[in-house]
Amino acid sequence: MVLISEDSRELLQAHVELWNQTYSFMKSVALAVALDLRIADAIHCRGGAATLSQILGEIGVRPCKLPGLHRIMRVLTMGESSATASLSPMLNHVLSPFRDSPLSMGLTAWFRHDEDEQAPGMCPFTLMYGTTLWEVCRRDDAINALFNNAMAADSNFLMQILLKEFSEVFHGIDSLVDVAGGVGGATMAIAAAFPCLKCTVLDLPHVVAKAPSSSIGNVQFVGGDMFESIPPANVVLLKWILHDWSNDECIKILKNCKQAIASRDAGGKIIIIDVVVGSDSSDTKLLETQQEWKKIFLEAGFKDYNIMPILGLRSIIELYP
């Protein structure tokens, strides 16, 4: 069992509550999507119980959307209900602002989108706006600054706790690459705590160009693309990165990371900080979500991993070649 100070535990719990409040509107968005897709009718047609695959068949959505439906149902599933009257007309009225808002990111349209079964990689944002978030950041300096500042603030909060409570994950290494590390918030905190550690921040050239000048001598910024190559190091850090990409893209990123790091005997590993849904050790969903991560890790060529659900919403994952 990992021990953590009471102050850090309270901060992490407050962080969880803040995220829950910030994204509470997604429950309304998910309910609006369920109404538009007539998910309740599909379940009713199956006698009141249906698998996700059966629901997809009933609502006419392609099988490649199964992971998306899984997420929608995870948000909506609350338990059994004895209600028999239809609330759809009232809910349609109440939820119309969420259905039409850009915050919904056109989820219903994404489910209905007839994309290639072999390449189901287009996310709702891209379908709605015709471009990726990263391209928007590249073109718009204001949005780029907003995004980078948000990531830096998140790093400042998280790294303060990580370095106080779990600094041992960085022990015994002499070099680290922070992949897609933005303007270097996480890296500079690590470098300050470990002055002998050679640290590199890798990100796209337009991001690195906005990085503040650092007075910390063991940090350098490199413009590049994680899908092309990653500078060599003992350890690669992927903080809050992989959730943005499809499984195939995650595998490609991890394969490039594997080429960059040393062997396990020489201290080589990847440190991933990301969400493992249901990562409370008492949650029966833990095994399922660990299996989802495990599938990606094995396909990327890794042999071992360790998931530590110790950072509130996020977990530390140590991944070994």
TrEMBL record:
Ranges for domain O-methyltransferase dimerisation: 19-77
SUPFAM superfamilies, A to Z: S-adenosyl-L-methionine-dependent methyltransferases, Winged helix' DNA-binding domain
One GO-annotated biological process of the protein: methylation
TM region(s), chain numbering: none
Pfam families tied to this protein: Dimerisation (PF08100), Methyltransf_2 (PF00891)
InterPro entries, per the entry: COMT-like (IPR016461), COMT_C (IPR001077), COMT_dimerisation (IPR012967), SAM-dependent_MTases_sf (IPR029063), WH-like_DNA-bd_sf (IPR036388), WH_DNA-bd_sf (IPR036390)
GO MF terms held by the record: O-methyltransferase activity; protein dimerization activity
Top-level taxonomic group: Eukaryota
Residue positions of the active site: 243 (proton acceptor)
Keywords, alphabetical: Methyltransferase, S-adenosyl-L-methionine, Transferase
Domain O-methyltransferase C-terminal: from-to ranges: 107-286
Protein name as it appears in the record: O-methyltransferase domain-containing protein
Protein species of origin: Sorghum bicolor (Sorghum)
Lineage: Eukaryota, Viridiplantae, Streptophyta, Embryophyta, Tracheophyta
